[in-house]
Amino acid sequence: MIGSLWLVPLFPFAGFAVNGLLGPRVLPRQAVGWIACAAVALSFLFSLGAVSGLGQLPESSGGLVVDHEAQRVTQTLFTWMPLGPGRDGRAVSVDWSYVLDPLSAVMLLVVTGVGLLIHLYSIGYMEHEDRSGYARFFAYLNLFMGMMLVLVLGGSLPVLFVGWEGVGLCSYLLIGFWYDRMFDEKSGMSVADAGRKAFLVNRIGDVGFILGTLLLLSALGTAQIQDILKAVPNLSAGMATAAALLLFVGVCGKSAQIPLYVWLPDAMAGPTPVSALIHAATMVTAGVYVLARMAGLYVASPTAMTVVAVTGGLTALVAATLGTAQTDIKKVLAYSTVSQLGYMVLAAGVGAFTAGVFHLMTHAFFKALLFLGAGSVIHALSGEQDIMKMGGLRTRLPWTHATFLIGTLAIAGVPPLAGFFSKDEILWAALSGSGGSLLLWLAGVVTAGLTAFYMTRLYMLTFAGPPRLTHEAEHHLHESPPVMLLPLILLAVGSVAVGFVGVPHFLGGASVPNLFEHWLEPVMPAAAGGAAGAAAAGHAEEAAHAAAAGAPLSEWGAMFVALLASGAGIVAGFAMYRGGPRPERATPAVRWVRAKYYVDELYDRAFVGPYRALCRFASAWDARIVDGLVNAVAFVTDLAGEMLRLAQTGYVRNYALGFFVGTILILYYVLR
Amino acid sequence: MMPVPPQSVVIVSLLLFGIGVLGVLTRRNAIIILMSIELMMNAANLNLVAFSRQHAHLTGQVFGIFTITVAAGEVAVGLAIVLALYRRFNSIYVDDVRLMKE
User: Fold this and answer.
1) Alpha-carbon span A312 to A298, nearest angstrom
2) What is the per-residue DSSP string for B3-32?
3) Which of A141, A149, A132 is nearest to A44 (CA)?
4) Which partner from A235, A380, B71, B89 sits 20 to 30 angstroms from B5, CA to CA?
């Protein structure tokens, strides 16, 4: 089964080809949706088969290279770019290879599993689209899945980058899916603008990613991730830091970290399943995946780790504050996603890569659930997204309500739901991990409180309190069809259950092992676990040392503080929004948060404006100077023609006489 | 029969050529200009043949036949130009065609 790994990304590509070519004209509507789902389902099944094959690995053979110790299978399909001899004389080439190890296995299952549910959901959600739009949607969605799987499985940085760019493209296409609509009336941003914004901001990150890849390729002569990690000790400290930071620029773009997070809230212009799949569960976590993939490189550079941790902590905190003031149901969730991604990056930055990936996984479940729940609400209200015009939906949409509540509790960190375990592990790592500090931990705890608060606010305004629906929305109000409810229910189950695979050691003790950490153990660098990892591995000495050195609180104490913050957030949210929206005094602080700290305006002034000015200058240069020179040449020629014309009579006989006289003169000259 | 001396032939050819040049320079009708050009061409032909005989060498005569052939092609093109002129300007008087000046 593991030998057919290469098929996994191929199914969605086939679905893309079939739906993209035949969907709009030939295939019946139902077939389009089910073909797309079947493609992803096949990928999921083959992923399951391949991952289960990790248990008993075969010997290396043919295109398969098996590393038993690291539980890694590398399948090389073909040589993609032969680059000639490198610095040391060996031939350098980039192979198209897929790697399955415990880390990519986690991603593989999350991507195909959650992806499959979201595909199913889309069948119901997009039912009002016309036939060609329906086919286009599913074709893009399948293309995205294929690209995401290439990203996850890519064994070398260039292959990974193909997937990285591919998902970026699909993100752009799907954000702009309703390209003829308006997204934000106030700022005049159209849906197409939102897509372009996402694409362009991501480009900034991609430049960093390419430079990082090329730096590693030129320094080490290989782009194969495992070879790079093996060769990291050969890198000078400065080189390692530079490469890690350049890759991190790419991570910032894709995973929406400060300063490149601005595209994600506007990415909500896309259809809701897209927000769930791409902008919550899978694509935006690609950055975190790259951090975990390149963990060996990052731990080699304390500077880079600090940058990563601080960026993550800051993003988590800032985005959480912004989430408290949004009134669009999807934008609240978008800022929440940015904030949770900040958590994951923070975890990576303090060396707790396992915790980061664990949060990535739990987040994929509960955030996809929340987005799909929001989609169900929007669908029920005929497109209304303003939570000020909702309320009282608890009894009207019972299934949506129940699942959304579970998602809310999970993200708020209520034990024993999934979010609690993963968040707790990150917070503990932020306090005690390598490079962790009280400040980072506090940022995380405050974020946890804010998260609980804005999610409770969102829940209360949407489902509780007096209904504030418009008459029309009220009239069409209906619970979603089963094809949409089934994914909600399955994801809700996941949001409850999935946390138990990673119960922290101090909670579970010997009876409930931390399966997740054990699973990822072969992949993660030994030092990367930090104190948390060391404690789990049973190195009491190291753990005690780390705790004594950095942690002013015990693991239990830290957990209780975090729980207290979450509880306070929930209580505050409940108390403040029990009776529906409340008039908020527009203090300067509130105004700042509502205006999203004027970050978009700042970027407009600082980057977009000057760039536009530069463009205008270049355009004027082209029109005046370059075109001017060309026109000047034409003008001079024209002028010369006008002058010479004066010498012409236009009578044939004059010219004939000219010939005659000329000939005689020449003859005289020749025969003289 | 007394052979014609080459000098006489050259004089005739000179006269023919002169008539041709005058025709080209003075006539307005494009067809007559064309005919005048033919005259000049035949003056040259006459020279070729005459000197060919004087030198008892056939090259000149072969050249003459070539020239006649080329002249036929030239007339065809010339008449086509005249026809085109007529279609465009409704006239074959070359003085009516002064595009270079206008």
Assistant:
1) 14
2) PPPHHHHHHHHHHHHHHHHHHHHH--BHHH
3) A149
4) B71
What is the nearest CA distance from A639 to chain B, expressed in angstroms? 15
Return d(Cα A263, Cα A256) in angstroms, integer: 7
Residues A660, B33: C-beta atoms closer than 8 Å: no
Q: Which stretches of chain A drop beneath a pLDDT of 70?
A: 509-510, 526-552
Which among A650, A653, A660 is the nearest to B99, CB-wise? Answer: A650
Asked whether the beta carbons of residue B25 and residue A648 sit closer than 8 angstroms, the reply is no
Which alpha helices (DSSP H) does A381-412 contain, by range?
Answer: 398-412
Q: Is A66 helix (H, G, I), strand (E, B) or coil?
A: strand
Q: What is the pTM of this model?
A: 0.80
Sign, Cα dihedral of A460, A409, A454, A190: negative
**Which is nearest to B22 in space by CA: B11, B36, B42?**
B36
Residue A224: is it exposed, middle or buried by C-beta count within 10 angstroms (0-12/13-18/19+)?
buried
Predicted-complex ipTM score: 0.82
Q: Tell me the β-bridge partners of A61.
A: A64
Q: pLDDT tens for residues A28-49?
A: 888 999 999 999 999 999 999 9
Pair A341, A288: CB distance under 8 Å: yes
CA A373 to chain centre: 20
CA dihedral A627, A632, A633, A635 (to 10 degrees): 120
Q: Which residues contact A346 (CB under 8 A, 6 or more apart)?
A: A308, A309, A312, A313, A316, A356, A426, A430, A440, A443, A444
Taking only Cα atoms into account, the Rg of chain B, rounded to an integer number of angstroms, comes to 17
Instruction: Please name each of the domains of chain B with its CATH number.
Output: 6-96 (1.10.287.3510)
3-class SS string, A546-570: HHHHHCCCCHHHHHHHHHHHHHHHH
Residue A653's closest chain B neighbor by CA? B25
Cα A220 to Cα A299, A305, A619, distances in angstroms: 18, 21, 42
How far apart CA A662 and CA A664 sit, in angstroms, is: 5
